[in-house]
Design goal:
Length: about 425
């Protein structure tokens, strides 16, 4: 009997190659797959959908020719691609309209920049929306699991991560564990003793960082089959499966800022918040003016309105005084950080210093250091080597080897 026989999984399908292969692998493993496209923050609209199964054909596929889609992503075409893949796989497909709920993400993004911090809307979207609303919907259709195309792995107490061999010889799904508060079946198994979130095998594509806010009970409901593969393997599988999106470009931009002009987005959303202010050096001497502190991020070098014979970087921002501070690169280095709003995926929260590796942004490698959690729940990190551009508002995520153990939101860099 196949691994997924008798179990239903709701697959978040974005129209890209990763989520498409996720759906295909899970179907191969015998799961009853239901596809779901989440209409979120893009300003271009897709058709309203009340949940009819997909009847799309290959002609609706998003063009993969260079330049046909901005960075390979546009919501109308993505929805069409997801629908087309669902039709090819012969699985039900639904469009969930979360645009109203997504306003919370836009408000957060705007408020963080206006407060002088550097937000991470993708992590917040996972915490507040994708793994909130999506789990609610999964419950309503009696789904046992939720699956996404993230490059990360879920390992359960059996020691099996990201799945077992399917009939095709590919790894997909994951070993069974469940929690009676979610799985509706009367025959559901008992909760697993241990569920771990691991980095994706492809460290260049690893997306575990953006999942750090996942609650432990929901982690046990997650299937992340492509975390066991490298990206070229996933594209090859998609091609072998006959999925026309096998060479579709990856999307990197913020979904509600498809042109990557986040400053323009902020100015349109809160024009009254942009005011001229002062640029100072490390000694507090005025060296220029700016059109709004929101135009700058910690560690920024390019696009600064001050010219010197040596490189300058943004080393500080003060929203209260509307001041931006510039200095040499070494002045951006921090020896540690503090973070709040923590989330832990382990029982033994480090109330004494524990050696870990830490990621301070999604596209950086974990670096060695130590973490300790204080009585108020705030975590404190100390790096073995100073780190460049530790930005308040970003997430600090801690790992023990391959396992993501927890993290929090950076409030302060420690120099």
């Amino acid at each position: 009997m196949k691994l997924g026989t008798g179990k239903k999984v709701l697959v978040a399908m974005s129209g890209g190659v990763d989520s498409s292969v996720t759906a295909a692998l899970l179907k191969e493993d015998g799961y009853e797959v239901v596809g779901c496209f989440m209409r979120l923050g893009s300003e271009d609209s897709i058709e309203e959908d009340t949940g009819a199964s997909s009847q799309a054909t290959q002609e609706t596929a998003c063009s993969t020719k260079p330049g046909a889609n901005r960075q390979g992503c546009c919501s109308v075409n993505d929805a069409a691609d997801a629908r087309m893949v669902a039709a090819l796989l012969d699985v039900p497909f639904y469009v969930m309209n979360f645009r109203k709920d997504f306003g919370r993400i836009k408000d957060y993004f705007t408020a963080e920049y206006n407060a002088g911090r550097t937000p991470n809307p993708c992590v917040r979207c996972n915490d507040w929306l994708k793994f909130g609303k999506l789990f609610d919907y999964a419950r309503s259709i009696d789904a046992d699991y939720i699956a996404t195309g993230h490059y990360a792995r879920v390992e359960r107490s059996s020691g099996r991560s990201s799945g077992s061999s399917s009939g095709s010889g590919r790894s997909s799904g994951s070993s069974s564990s469940s929690d009676s508060d979610f799985i509706p079946s009367a025959t559901a198994t008992a909760p697993a003793a241990r569920t771990r979130l691991l980095r994706g095998l492809d460290h260049h594509k690893d997306q575990s960082y953006v999942l750090f806010g996942m609650k432990r009970d929901r982690l046990a409901r997650m299937l992340l089959p492509i975390g066991a593969f490298h990206k070229p393997q996933v594209r090859k599988m998609a091609q072998e499966m006959g999925l026309p999106i096998f060479d579709k470009p990856d999307s990197y931009e913020i979904c509600f800022v498809p042109d990557n002009d986040y400053r323009g987005f902020l100015e349109r959303r809160s024009p009254e918040s942009f005011e001229k202010g002062t640029i100072v050096d490390e000694q507090g001497q005025t060296i220029g003016e700016h059109e709004g502190h929101q135009n700058f991020t910690i560690g920024q070098r390019r696009g600064l309105p001050v010219n010197r014979s040596y490189p300058l970087y943004v080393i500080g921002k003060d929203a209260a005084t509307n001041t931006v501070t510039l200095g040499p690169r070494e002045a951006t280095n921090a020896n540690g950080l503090r973070a709040d709003q923590t989330n832990w995926l382990i029982d033994d929260i480090p109330t004494t210093a524990r050696a870990v590796t830490i990621k301070i942004r999604s596209n950086s490698d974990p670096v060695p250091g130590s973490v300790i959690v204080h009585a108020d729940g705030e975590l404190e990190v100390h790096f073995e080597e100073p780190q460049h551009a530790v930005a308040p508002g970003q997430a600090a995520v801690c790992y023990d080897g391959e396992e993501l153990i927890g993290g929090g939101w950076i409030t302060q860099a420690l120099v």
